[in-house]
Design a protein that fits this description.
Layout (H helix, E strand, L loop, with lengths): L16 E5 L3 H13 L3 E5 L2 H10 L6 E5 L6 H4 L11 E5 L4 H9 L4 E4 H6 L1 H8 L3
């Protein structure tokens, strides 16, 4: 049975929510399945504007935002939801060779930036570490 579509395996409505900015279907499915299996609710947004809008409007606030550098985020817009008044912490992952992307994410005030390899090796550990309780 596909547990990702099994209603008995779905996190309850009070489970912490993770909002993901991702366009890569393959990684998106893996991320969604792993986080749902760990008891999180997962919401995907395909571009920066809906991702930022969702972080601002979620009620209750999302426990964590996750951004795939491959989604081509607009860092100026992302910077509007970072810092001390951030609605949710944000974790970014991307290719370790994307130095410009890592610098842009850091300049935007991202909570934590990791390589693809680190993210996929320890996704649940990272999410648990940075997600708001």
């Amino acid at each position: 049975m596909d547990t990702a579509h099994d209603p008995s395996n779905a996190p309850d409505a009070n489970a912490p929510e993770i909002v993901v900015l991702n366009r890569d279907l393959f990684f998106g499915v893996r991320i969604g399945n792993a986080l749902r299996d760990a008891g999180f609710r997962v919401t995907f947004r395909p571009s920066t504007a809906p991702f930022v809008a969702y972080l601002r409007a979620a009620d209750p606030l999302a426990a964590l935002g996750v951004i795939d550098l491959g989604a081509g985020p607009d860092w100026d817009e992302i910077a509007t939801v970072t810092g001390e008044s951030a609605p949710s912490p944000i974790l970014v992952f991307g290719p370790h060779k994307d130095v410009d992307g890592f610098r842009a994410a850091k300049a935007a005030g991202i909570t934590r930036i990791v390589s693809n390899g680190e993210f996929h090796r320890d996704m649940l550990g990272l999410v648990r570490r940075y997600a708001r309780p």
